[in-house]
Amino acid sequence: MTPGTVPAAPVASGAVPPGPVDAAGAAELLRGASGVLVLGHVRPDADAMGSAVALATAVRRVCVPAVVSFGGPDPVPGPLRTLDPDGLVVEPDEVPARPDVLVCCDTSSPGRLGSLTPLLDVARVTLVVDHHASYTGFGTHNLVDPRAPATVALVHRVVAALGVPLDTAQARALFAGLYTDTGGFRLGGADALRLGAELVDAGAEPTELLRGLSGTSSFGWLAALATILAGARREPDAAGGLGLVWATVDAATAERYRSEVPSIVGHLRAVAGDGVAALLSEISPGEWSASMRGTGVPDLSAVAGRLGGGGHPGAAGVERAGPVEDVLDALRTELAVQAVTGDEPDLGDEPDRG
Ligand code: AMP
Ligand code: MN
Ligand code: MN
């Protein structure tokens, strides 16, 4: 140092006070990190994957090391890997043991990090970027906005605050999350459409992107789907008379058709009218993941929340162990209670899926 000069003030780590942050605050946390591990929820969807990949790419661009991972038990579905051409995603057993800054994308509660949940206890800073009304408040810092149509919309703001121009891979990753969480822009209004247009301008080409995301299925999937849908049941009196349509997927089928199974609830929803659709898939023997869709009345996020899960008023999920009849009974009970007692939620920008 030249005599007489004053040393630059050290980058104050921890200068951003804990609690809610805006995009600029999130960017400051990331810039000040010695390393960043970006996580999304277990069994990631395009919003979790797209958010994590686009954010980690931006963090690398400002010269901070960053990787992405998703807790087990399940691996990332093949079609989602098309959103990670640069290979930022690492296996859960390869993540840094003590990440400096941990970012949790599209993750409303600690348990949604699956096998990586214990990292919350060792990271210096945990920043949650999420849009779930059921966000539990975990983490040291959070950028959480339930009005956002998808977590990618929040990540987009953080990337801009980092001063990083979007590359094609980031635009594709963000577009994928926005498209799926808004149900193909059915939700999210003009803001979602404007963001979508900006992402297309930045290189997300929808036709090719969506073809890659839906992947290709084996011919056997047709028969499996037919069997699952033939087993669907309708209970007109459920959910306070709005009705419930449900179906189940056994463990072997859920494992074999992991990429395809999340789409089934859409078929059930199409015939559920004003009622609720629920798909119960056996994620391991005796353990069920219930994926629910509805109009927002009753509020499925409240229903799932009381059973230990979460989500949005019109799309929520929960995991339960036990015989499938018990899981169904728990759903029937909570749907009935919520239909009678529930206030109508604000459905302004209600996300479609995850
Ligand atoms: P899915 O039915 O898996 O597409 O999820 C619908 C919505 O519920 C998404 O916002 C998920 O993040 C959320 N969700 C699903 N399962 C759970 C769970 N076990 N705990 C909390 N939120 C969940
Ligand atoms: Mn989401
Ligand atoms: Mn999600």
Provide a short characterization of the protein structure:
By secondary structure, the chain is an alpha/beta fold. The chain has helices spanning 23-31, 46-61, 151-161, 168-181, 189-201, 206-214, 220-230, 251-256, 264-270, 300-306, 324-341, and strands at 19-20, 36-40, 66-70, 101-105, 125-130, 141-144, 233-235, 244-249, 276-284, 287-293, 310-312, 315-321.
- The percent range for helix content is 25-40%
Rg (CA only): 21 Å
What is the succession of H and E elements?
EHEHEEEEHHHHHEEHHEEHEEH
Q: For this entry, what is the oligomeric state of its chains?
A: single chain
Strand order of the largest sheet: 1-6-5-4-2-3
CATH fold description of the largest domain: inorganic pyrophosphatase (n-terminal core)
**What is the class of the largest domain in the CATH system?**
Alpha Beta
Can you walk me through this structure?
- The longest helix has 18 residues, at 324-341.
- The chain folds into 2 domains: 19-214, inorganic pyrophosphatase (n-terminal core), CATH 3.90.1640.10; 220-341, Diaminopimelate Epimerase, Chain A, domain 1 (Roll), CATH 3.10.310.
- Helices cover 34% and strands 18% of the residues.
- Helix 1 crosses helix 3.
- Strand 7 (233-235) and strand 8 (244-249) form a beta hairpin.
- It has a 6-stranded parallel sheet.
- The chain is an alpha/beta fold and 354 residues long.
- The structure holds adenosine monophosphate and manganese (II) ion (MN) (2 copies).
- The site of one manganese (II) ion has 6 residues, from helix 2.
List the helices and strands and how they pair.
Elements: E1 19-20, H1 23-31, E2 36-40, H2 46-61, E3 66-70, E4 101-105, E5 125-130, E6 141-144, H3 151-161, H4 168-181, H5 189-201, H6 206-214, H7 220-230, E7 233-235, E8 244-249, H8 251-256, H9 264-270, E9 276-284, E10 287-293, H10 300-306, E11 310-312, E12 315-321, H11 324-341
Parallel strand pairs: 1-6, 2-3, 2-4, 4-5, 5-6, 8-9
Antiparallel strand pairs: 7-8, 9-10, 10-12, 11-12
